[in-house]
Specification:
Ribosomal Protein L9, domain 1
Amino acid sequence: MKVILKEDVKGLGKKEQMVEASDGYARNYLFPKGLAVEATAANINIMKTKKEAEAQKKEKEIAQAKELANKLKDITVTLKAKAGESGKLFGSITAKDVADALKSQHKLDIDKKQLVMPEAIKAIGTFTVEAKLYPAISSKFTIKIESL
């Protein structure tokens, strides 16, 4: 019997996948537990529609990420912080500070978790930070740290 899985079933298949299961296994285990539905024409249509909608959503997210990456590559974010005479900051500049500055200075909403900074910035100068916007889509921009 062909069934469409609603959840991942170990040894059978992944969610939204159409698989062949024995009649008894499907009727006595998969259907009562809500793990699968019978692969009727209507259910197959619903599955195809969901997959198409998911693909369109993914394409839209990729397009938005590429657009944001293009905007980011030409941006310079300027942050001011207290520093000593040697150019060393009192405290540090973190990914959260950079994300807040991007939002306030350039109206770009990027999560601090998307910013790749090996460690917090602790000196005055110009630094390059990478933003991973989507798997395989990233962009680098410049941060300029100035003394108050």
